[in-house]
Amino acid sequence: MTSSLVEAQSKSIDNKLIENAKFSGAETHHKHYKAIYQLDSNNPDVVKKAFRNIKNVLNDPRLKGKIEVELITFSGGTEVMLKDSGYEEALKDLINKGVTVAQCTNSLQERKLKKEQLYDFIGYVPSGNGELVIRASEGWVIVKP
């Protein structure tokens, strides 16, 4: 390779690095955004990550006042909704921030649980997967932490 070719390639790489450093994220082009967070695990790290992800999206200045969020729990995530789970305040905090929090009733039946065993402030859907399918067809983004 000639030194001028090496120099040109080096400049090209430098320009790409400079351009990349200027990137500050996507711009919003819509008036309204919708995201549904899928929580199907009772792993404390995954649960905390889901709550943190939701708070982060709610606090994103690009999305402030423009986003609708739902948290749907099913399968292992059902345990998060149990009255003794220790997540009561975190769930209430999300609801107070405008997040809809709902539980799959199929998972209750499979786990032989009654609604009385879960927090009394959560909503219910017939199936978590059905909720995801419907929301996706309506243009909602599905997020799985």
Structural features:
about 140 residues, alpha/beta, five-stranded parallel sheet, 5 helices, elongated
Give the CA-based shape.
Answer: elongated
Biggest sheet record: 5 strands, parallel
Radius of gyration from CA coordinates:
21 Å
Q: Helical segment tally?
A: 5
Overall strand count = 5
What is the CA-CA span between the terminal residues?
Answer: 47 Å
> Would you identify the regions where 5 or more consecutive residues have pLDDT less than 50?
none
Structural class category: alpha/beta
The portion of residues forming beta strands comes to: 15-25%
Instruction: Please provide the ordered H/E string of secondary-structure elements.
Output: HEHEHEHEHE
Q: What layout of secondary structure does this protein have?
A:
Blueprint: H1 3-22, E1 33-39, H2 44-59, E2 67-73, H3 88-96, E3 100-104, H4 105-110, E4 123-125, H5 128-137, E5 141-143
Parallel strand pairs: 1-2, 1-5, 2-3, 3-4
